[in-house]
Amino acid sequence: MTCAAYAELDVDDRDLIPALRAQGVAPRIAIWNDPQVPWHQCDYVILRSTWDYSQDLQAFLAWAGSLQGVTTLANSLEIIEWSADKHYLGDLASAGVPVVDTQFIEPGDRYALPSRQFVVKPTVSAGSRNTYRFSPDRIAEAALSINDIHALGKTVMIQPYLESVDTSAETAMVFFDGSFSHAARKGALLGLDDQDHNYENGLFIREHVTAREPRPDQLEVARAALGCAPSGWLYARVDL
């Protein structure tokens, strides 16, 4: 399952097609909001590169809900709803999972900006869209960005910027059916001076990704986070 901008898939995704056929599966690349797709003829629907979901989350969730009783969707609607909105960070924090300190700001709410570098972004986003990094002397610019995100009808998150991202980057861990599969190093995306990000197909910033072996404590945190998610997920990724 993909979106119109990625109808041809990435190079690594294309390798899935012959691999699935070798297992006796008849794969079809489909665009989630294409009204011509006969979903009732699909035995199984797997989300892959539906990068535009965050631009109209309600339409995306309505489409996912329409598949109930028609075919099997992986991951389930309950998991999609939970993971699509970063309010889930509150669930993780309540369960004792270490997360970045986060303020959730609704339109009209009072808020305090950190006295160090910080990040402003919506709770519903993908690929760093509408995500900005500011220094404490750019309060006015930050306020404008917060207003712009609110104008989109979205909740704003304010978080301190973790400088370790610049040196150690992020560690993304991928799990399938409850088991750890592999991890990747994801380089920093947000600069202080350039707020005009170069988005791939208008959807996300192209990342620099390489292989990485996670530490045992990172795997422990990832498993704790997944323990807070709705049950029954087929695949998941946890970024630290």
Spell out the key features of this protein.
240 residues; alpha+beta; four-stranded antiparallel β-sheet; 8 helices
Structural write-up:
This protein is an alpha+beta fold. 27% of the residues lie in helices and 20% in strands. The longest helix is centred in the middle third of the chain and has 13 residues, at 139-151. It is globular. The relative contact order is 0.14.
Structure in a nutshell:
This protein is α+β, with helices and mostly antiparallel strands. Helix content is 27%, strand content 20%.
- SSE class: alpha+beta
Helix-residue proportion: 25-40%
Number of helices in the DSSP assignment: 8
Gyration radius (Cα, Å) is: 19 Å
Could you tell me the mean pLDDT? 90
| Through-space gap between termini | 26 Å
Proportion of beta-strand residues: 15-25%
Question: SSE layout and pairings?
Answer:
Layout: H1 11-14, H2 16-22, E1 44-46, H3 57-66, E2 72-74, H4 77-84, H5 88-94, E3 103-105, E4 118-122, E5 132-134, H6 139-151, E6 156-160, H7 164-167, E7 170-176, E8 179-186, E9 199-200, E10 204-205, E11 209-211, H8 216-226, E12 235-239
Parallel strand pairs: 1-2
Antiparallel strand pairs: 3-6, 4-5, 4-6, 7-8, 7-12, 8-11, 9-10
